[in-house]
Amino acid sequence: MLRAASEEAGRAYKRQLLDLLDLRPGHTVLDVGCGPGTDLPALAERVGAAGRVIGVDQDPAMLATARERTAAAHTVEIREADAHALPVAPGTVDRAKIDRVLMHVRSPSEVLAQLHTATRPGARVGLVEPDWDTLAVDAEDLETSRAFTRYTTEKVVRHATVGRGLARLAVGAGFRVETVLATTPVFTDFEHGDHTLGLGRNTQQAVADGHIDRGRG
Questions:
Q1: Where are the domains of the chain?
Q2: Could you tell me what percentage of the chain is helix, strand and coil, using 3-state DSSP and rounding each to the nearest 5?
Q3: What is the pLDDT at residue 215?
Q4: Which residues contact 52 (CB under 8 A, 6 or more apart)?
Q5: Cα-flanking dihedrals φ and ψ of residue 125, to 5°?
Q6: Closest by alpha carbon to 15, among 35, 45, 36?
Q7: pLDDT digits (tens, 9 = 90+) for 10-22
Q8: Cβ-contact 103, 159 below 8 angstroms
Q9: Which region is the signal sequence (predicted)?
Q10: Fewer beta carbons under 10 A from the terminal one: N or C of the chain?
Q11: pLDDT per position as a tens digit, 124-157
């Protein structure tokens, strides 16, 4: 039951994102930073046989998985490229999404500028990014929880607070912001939370770097 609730926290925002994109048959959709292609089948289903889905990522291993996942989806194209140089013609994209990618790139503003160039007039874009500074871990030792959040924000994630600046960055890239939604995912299953947030890996590194006392928490 707890694991199901934790997994639902991740699925709910993805469903909401796809609904807000208002995907329609025949649309060309761009998934920037598609990773292993988790969302590509759902995108392809919504745009139908007349649509096209383009997944872009710079990690060959991730793209290999994406190709396997979408092998039967003939409307899906997988392209290896840097998000700062999107491999699509200007003004050809009807819908686009960036989901937990801007926090990792060199320049979020440059990526959004590229995306603005790629989209048609009237296109719709969905951006999803966390604000790691708001991360709260339910630990018995409150200071350890705070230390973990500080370590993650300052040492692990490149642009840890990009989530709070999405509207500003989008406007700066030339987009008009219609909707801003803030959600609070709650993970009650450690394994699923660890998979999504890297709790175990980051905690071990924080201890090794001396940011968290091994004897506390």
A1: 2-131+161-189
A2: 45, 15, 40
A3: 61
A4: 27, 28, 29, 75, 77
A5: -125, 135
A6: 45
A7: 678 899 999 999 9
A8: yes
A9: none
A10: N
A11: 999 999 999 999 988 888 998 899 899 999 999 9
Q: What is the phi-psi region of residue 57: left when phi exceeds 0, alpha when psi lies from -120 to 50, beta otherwise?
A: beta
Q: Are strands 28-32 and 52-57 parallel, antiparallel or unpaired?
A: parallel
State the amino acid at position 157 in one-letter form.
Answer: V
CB 50 within 8 A of CB 23: no
Q: Which fold has domain 2-131+161-189?
A: Rossmann fold (3.40.50)
Which residue type is seen at 162? V
Reply yes or no on whether the pLDDT at 107 is more than 80. yes
Question: What single-letter DSSP state applies at residue 122?
Answer: E
